[in-house]
UniProtKB/TrEMBL annotation:
Gene Ontology molecular function: methyltransferase activity
Organism placement in taxonomy: Bacteria, Bacillati, Bacillota, Bacilli, Bacillales
Gene Ontology biological-process annotations: methylation
CDD domains for the chain: AdoMet_MTases
Pfam families given in the database record: rRNA_methylase (PF06962)
Keywords: Methyltransferase, Transferase
Highest rank taxon of the organism: Bacteria
Protein name as catalogued: Class I SAM-dependent methyltransferase
Amino acid sequence: MILPSILSSARTAVKASCPPGSIAVDGTLGNGHDTLFLAECVGPSGHVYGFDIQQAAVERTDTRLSEAGQRKQVTLFHASHHLIAELLPREAKGRIRAFMFNLGYLPHGDEQVITQPDTTLEALRTAADWLAPGGIISVALYTGHPGGPEEATAVIDWARSLPPQDYQVMWQQMINRNKAPSLLLLEKRTKKRA
Ligand SMILES: C[S@@+](CC[C@H](N)C(=O)[O-])C[C@H]1O[C@@H](n2cnc3c(N)ncnc32)[C@H](O)[C@@H]1O
């Protein structure tokens, strides 16, 4: 296949914005695939902060990172991502090179526990504020579960309202597939000198 999947597009953009030594955040740990990817991008001189409200997700991510030898540069929070500003060190504000949010439920887990529009939007507002110039936020949106379409609409509406002089926003979806997941990518513009 020539066209990139949403996962591939997310990783390409995040990797480009996240050289070794960077700070990154995984807003939804789940099974830890994205956290491991971020840990490998930032390397031992960088740092990744990860959030999930389910203990099972924290444990699965912990195991995946440990088995890959990438545990040292990651801090895991068993907490909601809307608490990013309360739990991250103040010095990280404006220096975070990438945020990844993979919304919905934990695969092979409790499908009733899903991300919710209110807390997702609060986390995204903080992410947009704390992002470094040139940094990327990726949001994978799913519409196949109850509550998913409403959350996706709320996130897209928020992203559309961002000022174009401050953020570039892109949205990717395979439009000939029913309930196809989509990807939102936000890049914070670097300010021009006056
Ligand atoms: C689709 S999974 C994430 C997949 C993961 N990024 C991976 O690579 O395996 C969504 C996760 O979001 C978590 N979640 C739901 N509400 C949350 C919240 N308010 N804060 C943080 N995580 C949340 C769920 O528990 C679930 O584990």
